[in-house]
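ok trying this again, last paste got cut off
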Amino acid sequence: MIQTICQSSTIMATKQVANWAVNLSPSSLPQAVSTAAQRSLYNYIGCTIGGSHHPTVSKAHRALSPFFGPAQASLLGTSQKTDAQHACLLNGIASHVHDYDDTHLATIIHPTGPVASACLAYTQYAPIPITGPALLTAIVAGIEASCKLGLAVWPAHYDIGWHITSTTGGIGAAIAVGKLLSLSETQMAHAIGLASVQVIGLREMFGSDTKSFHPGRAAQAGFLAAVMAGNGFTSSERRWRPSVGGRMLLLAAGSRGWTTLWASWDGSGRCSGTRSSLFLAALCVILLLTGVYNCVGRWRRKA
């Protein structure tokens, strides 16, 4: 009985997310959300250009360049183009290599890197031109999916060692590219499933080149998931079932779980994740003030 309820719950969650994403339209976005999405995109482009010649990115480029395919999408900050999948990966690495990309404070997810890397790669490759409003709507869908999935599993998911930016970012990237591909609700659900089995990112890698590899690989995985789903590749309807893998990813002890996830997609159109991401200046102020307040507090206690 309990297993049946759990399986039904995961199907409901996946379909609810897919339905929300498919039906999101430019006209349904409040102006504040559209503005926030533009700022997130500008921030992403700046961070990616700034990181484009970092030694970490150069090492990845040098290792992978023999395997580059047709010139489909730009490597930001350079004059080079490569195939769309490698553009997802390398731009995603560059976007996060300095750790200055936008941050969703409630979950400490950096949501735009994986999503925008995948979206821009597909936008340049797309056989039919993608409009600006369509691109922004796709980015909003991906950011919201990442942040609200993150809210459902925070903080236990992070505390047991997952890098939440990339574990949620691959799913957000799949949903965003799925929007650009105009996937059906069923195809979008399959894209979510395909992204879920490619989850990547361990906090153990922090301090190494692999930390910034996480968002790049998440972008690449989400791109692949959406494109495959759009061509009829299927996945299980229980992509977030509470099996052993599901517990590790989503239902670790202490996570807020499915109730939070369902409530996030209540049909209200409130895109709170997109609006609540902060950029370097605001984030630095918050972090610096926290340190200042702690120092003042210690000084007062000693006085």
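PB: full thing came through this time. Strands lie at 73-74, 81-82, 103-104, 277-278.
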